[in-house]
């Protein structure tokens, strides 16, 4: 998958990749990425 950088999706990706993100933040980021993927890819 193409690595996104910048914007909302890029931020969500960084949140997921980061080891010290909270669980709720990760879940939110996952939803952001998933919905983006469904729409754009």
Describe the protein.
- The chain has two helices and no strands.
- Helices cover 71% and strands 0% of the residues.
- It is mainly α and 41 residues long.
- Helix 1 (7-17) packs across helix 2 (23-40).
- Residues 14-24 have a biased composition (Low complexity).
- Residues 1-41 are annotated as: Disordered.
- Residues 25-41 have a biased composition (Basic residues).
Largest sheet: none
Fraction in beta strands: under 5%
Percent of residues in helices comes to over 70%
Give the averaged pLDDT, no decimals: 79
Name the helix and strand elements from N-terminus to C-terminus, one letter apiece. Answer: HH
3D shape? globular
Please state the oligomeric state of the protein chains shown: single chain
Number of distinct helices: 2
**Gyration radius, rounded:** 10 Å
Number of E-type strands? 0
Distance between the termini: 10 Å
Strand and helix layout:
Elements: H1 7-17, H2 23-40
């Amino acid at each position: 998958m193409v690595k996104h950088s910048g914007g909302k999706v890029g931020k969500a990706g960084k949140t997921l990749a980061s080891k010290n993100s909270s669980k709720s933040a990760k879940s939110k980021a996952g939803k952001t990425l998933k919905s983006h993927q469904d729409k754009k890819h």
